[in-house]
Structures are given as structure tokens and as C-alpha cells.
Amino acid sequence: MAYIKRAAEDTAARVSKMFPVLLITGPRQVGKTTLLQKLAEEHKEAGVERKYVTLDDPDARYLAKHDPALFLQRYSPPVLIDEIQYATELFPYIKMSVDRSKRKGDFWLTGSQAFRLMNNVSESLAGRVGIVHLLGLSDADI
């Protein structure tokens, strides 16, 4: 299936340049990961290599939950962490990392369970995260 350029791509790219953490939220299967992987591919062509890890992977999730410091050593920024709601234990460690580096766009996150996730994000990463809500294909996308 061909990639459909999303109207939210430009917004996500701008937010990534403004904040150390970009969080794309929305229901399952609306294209959050696909959108960020497409942006990462474009950045790779410009020389920025971004790691990718999904917390759908039980081993990655276990490491993130039980040893967040080691997880962030293994998946150091710039990184795309998919399904962050499965390991909110990472938030304080992400905060420490962005406070040390002060680099914009180091962490790209996706999450599907908006309410619980938003409470944790707003407490842990206040002022450090730009949030983009992605829904299904819009008229502009189509």
C-alpha cells in the first residue's frame, strides 16, 4: 500500500524542532508510527540516524519497566519509542536526558491510551513535550 502524506506531518516536524520530546497520540491504527517512521526516513537522508523500538515487544517493555536507565543507554537519542503507554516508568529518565542535553527532537513517542498517558506526560515532562493528536485520515489527507 502506498504511503499517504498526512496533514499532521508538517505540524509534527515543527513541534520536533521546538521541543525535546514529540508525542503523537491517537487511537490504534491511525498511522502514528507510520508518520514518524516516514519523518525519520527523511531525517536519515539528511544524516540523522534515529533508533526505533516498540514497547509492544515484551523484551523491550520489560527492560523499559524494570531498568529504564539501561533501556535509554541501549536506545539512546535520537530515538522513536512506540507505544510509550506501556512503560511510563521511562518518563523521569527521559526528563533527565533532555534536561542534560537540551537538544530538540531527541525523543519521538507514540501512545494510544490518551487519558492515562496524558496525566503522566503532563506531570513528568511539563514544558519539554509537544503533543500532536492524530485521528483517522482527514479530508486534507485524502
Question: What features would you describe in this structure?
Answer:
It is a single chain. Helix 5 (about 90-100) links the parallel strand 3 (about 80) and strand 4 (about 105-110). This protein has about 140 residues and is an alpha/beta fold. A five-stranded parallel sheet has the order 2-3-4-1-5, sandwiched between helices. Helix 3 packs across helix 4. It has helices spanning about 10-20, 30-45, 60-65, 70-75, 90-100, 115-125; strands at about 20-25, 50-55, 80, 105-110, 130-135. The protein starts with 7 loop residues before the first helix and ends in a 9-residue tail after the last strand.
Question: Helical proportion?
Answer: 40-55%
How much strand content do the residues show?
A: 15-25%
Q: pLDDT under 50 segments (min length 5)?
A: none
Strand order of the largest sheet: 2-3-4-1-5
Shape from CA axes? globular
Q: Strand count, sense and closure of the main sheet?
A: 5 strands, parallel
